[in-house]
Structure formats: C-alpha cells, structure tokens
Amino acid sequence: MSNPGQPHVAVVGAGIAGLAAAFFLRDVPCRVTVLEGSPRLGGKLSVSGIAGVAVDEGAEALLARRPEGTGLAAAAGLSGQLAWPGTTAARIWSQGRMRPLPRRQFMGVPADLAELAASGLVSPAGLARARQDLDLPATGRDGDVPVAGYVAARFGQEVVDRLVDPLLAGVYAGRTEDLSFEATLPALAAESRRHASLAAAAAELLPGPAGDESTMPPGARPAGNHGTAPPGTGAPPVFTTLAAGLGTLPGAVAAASGACVRTSAMVRGLARAGGGWRLTVGSAHDEEYLLAHAVVLAAPATPVARLLAGVPGVSAAVTALQEIRYASMAIATLAYPGAAFPAPLEGSGYLVPAADGRPVKAVTFSTVKWPHLRAAAAGLAIIRCSLGRIGEEALLQSADEELAAVAAADLAAATGVRGAPVASRVTRWGGGLPQYTVGHLDRVARIRAAVAGQPGLAVCGAAYDGIGIPACVATAQAAARQIAEYLRDGRQ
Prior knowledge:
Blueprint: E1 8-12, H1 16-24, E2 31-35, E3 47-50, E4 53-56, E5 62-63, H2 67-75, E6 82-83, E7 91-94, E8 97-100, E9 105-106, E10 109-110, H3 113-119, H4 124-131, H5 147-155, H6 157-172, H7 181-184, H8 186-192, H9 198-204, E11 239-242, H10 249-257, E12 260-262, E13 267-273, E14 276-281, E15 288-292, E16 294-297, H11 301-308, H12 315-322, E17 326-337, E18 349-351, E19 360-365, H13 366-369, H14 371-377, E20 380-387, H15 393-396, H16 400-415, E21 423-434, H17 440-452, E22 457-459, H18 469-490
Parallel strand pairs: 1-2, 1-16, 2-12, 7-18, 16-22
Antiparallel strand pairs: 3-4, 5-11, 6-11, 7-8, 9-10, 13-14, 14-15, 17-20, 17-21, 18-19, 19-20
Helix pairs in contact: 1-10, 1-18, 2-18, 5-6, 11-12, 12-17
C-alpha cells in the first residue's frame, strides 16, 4: 500500500504497456500515477457493441504461447475469461480467387514448396523461381536488409507479393520493401544464417506437423472456443482472447495495479528537477507541474521524442525516435444476417495482397473465428475489415459511411454477400502501428543506451521490441524492473 512519503513514479501513457508497467510496480514501495492524454485508457485495446454484441475495435487476440499476455490477464483476475479458437484455416483472396494459405510457412515464407504449388498462389513461372531457393548458394547480407529484398533473392518477387507481403501487412500495415528483416522476422533472420535455403530455415521454425496453426500470421488467425482452458487434449491454440473482449484487459490491469490513473492529462513537458523529474501536465492555459522521482515513458515514439527533446544528454534517443514512422488504419466492423451469404463462411477470414490494389487488406470472420461471439450474435455474421496501409492515408480521410461502404463492397466481391449490413462501425487508429523499417534494431539500441544514462528514466511500448500485447507487456516488465532497481539502489 502506497503512502505520500514514498517515492513517486509517473507513467506517461495508459496503453497496455503503461498500465502493465504500473501493475509491475505494485509491490514496489512507491506511489504510481499514470497520465493519459486522451479521454480513455487502453490505447489500441477497446471494445464496444455492434448489433448488440460486444466486439473489439482494435487488437482482438493475444499470443497464448508467450506467457506475458496471458500471465498479465490471469494476474488481473481474468483467467476465467479466456476464449479459444474454433478454427485455424485462413485464406488469401488473390487475383479474384480465394486460395488456401499454406500451412507450412513462417509469416509467408514457404517451408514446403509442394504445398505452395498446390495453393495456386503463384504462377508456374513464379513457382519455378521459388524452387531455385533449394539450389541457390547462401545469400549474403551485410547488416540489416528489407524483407522483400532478401526473400525475393531466395524465392523471387512473386512469393513476396502474393504471400509474404499480405501477411506482414496484416501485422504492421507496412510494406515489405521497407520493413526490416532482422526486426520483423528475428527468428527467421537468425535461422537463415545456418541454412543456404530459406525454405529450410523456415522449416526449422515450424515444430508441429503440417497444419500446425503456429505457422499462421497474427492478423489472420482464426480462433474460438469459450472456456477457461484450451479445447481438446493437444497443444493449446496459438492465440486467445477474452470473452468480453480484449478491450476489457486495460481496465482490469489498471484496477489491479492500485495506481492513480488520470485520463485527459496530457504531458507536455519533461525536465530534470533536483534528483528527480518535473512533468508539465495539461494545456498551456491550465497547466500543472507534477514531481516524480522516476518516470516511465510508455507513449508512442513521436510524443516521447518531444518530451525528451528538453532533456540534456539524450539527443541520440530523440533522433532515433523521430526516425520511427507510424501507419494509420481503420477497422470497419459489419454485421449481416447469416442468410445474406450464399455459402457458409469458411475459416477465420482472408488476407489481400497489396499488389491487387484493394482498399481492404485483411478480413476476419469474427463469428466463425470466435465461437463465443457466434453464440452471442444470434444468427448474425460479424465481419471485421482492416483498411489502410502506410502511404494510403487519403483513403482514411473518407467519412465513416464511405469507409463502411468500401469495406462492404470489397466483402461482396470476395464472398458474394447480398444486401447491406444491418449494422456497421468504423474505428480509426491514426498513427497506430509503428513501422520496423531497416535499421530498427540499431535505433532501439541507441534509444535505450541514451535513456540508460538518465537515472530514474525508462521507456516501454510497441515502438521497440514487437507490437503484440505480450511484447509490449515484456517491455513494461523490463521498464518496471529498471525503475524498481533505481529506487532501491540508485536514488540519492
């Protein structure tokens, strides 16, 4: 239990990383204040109703095989709310046809070229080029390289365009010609140094038999059964969610942290003050000063760069943070009568290659993917359509009604659904997804080195080591540990 005489820690940002940092400080003798500039906590985790069903507006699943996310949910009292997958089949809508997503692939990099051939995703010429990977000498790389460049050197451009690009776009809303091989596919980058063939490297990372859902991408995985344990007796599914919506996690974590959480409390300035820090909070017309012994910056890269610009000795971090770009996107959630589809929906949804020029990049059949939603939807089919990649900001300037109509038209072309949705909801995530472009790992190293030289300062969040919930929680845990050690050993 904190008291006014204890050290004070300020956490800037009430997304899941900031709230997790506050949670991990709960057993440290200190007071914790979380400051969030927007009117609500949770960042990109939010849930609201559509057609009477609670459906996530942002991230809808977390990686179950990394313990950080499920562990945090359990510690916040939500383990009984975990919901599990109902299906693991995803497809790619490519050149006007639905094609199966090969199971034996690692984020789109094929491990089984016979399965790639059976999918029909690439042309005969593209398949012949892909098979050269098995015989080509090792492709050298001097430092970090773009995903597209390295994968194309092994398999050819068609595999990049038709398979790798849609999977990575589903995660980052980015483009493979810009994304870092080392930062976005670190396990494959490491394994590729031990194999000449990239297919062989990918196969080493797929421990399960053909069809193991671990080969599927975060944005397109199907899922479902509602309960406190995974269905069946085999290995648990790769992904899980919460029955009331993953958007309920932030509130539970905030409550369990015991921290004082303030929304509509924009931090506009950060400066050294004696042995601690002074934070300027609020508008220029109604500002207040908050003193803290230590600070955790859990906001996106751009506002963190602005705050650090006033701190001497961290110019290298400021420059590196300013180099991290962000992609904007929107999610159009549509509800249809089940009978509006000419055939039952199959699998969790589908991805769309950027090369096809479609506005929708990924579609999730939510009431197929999550059986607990199907049970609640009472005959309705609820569909989530992701729109926008980096560089497509003009599309996102359309009104909500227009974006919903664009999504519905794309869905009709892909599935044959008839008529208009009975309900729709558009959620915009402006600047929501950090881009791990070439050189990202070096940027993060420069940021952390500069911040480490500032006693009582730490950073965490999606800008650094991964954009998924477990990765964000891991950075929060590390930041909380750093602050706890400072308060225990280093504070003068």
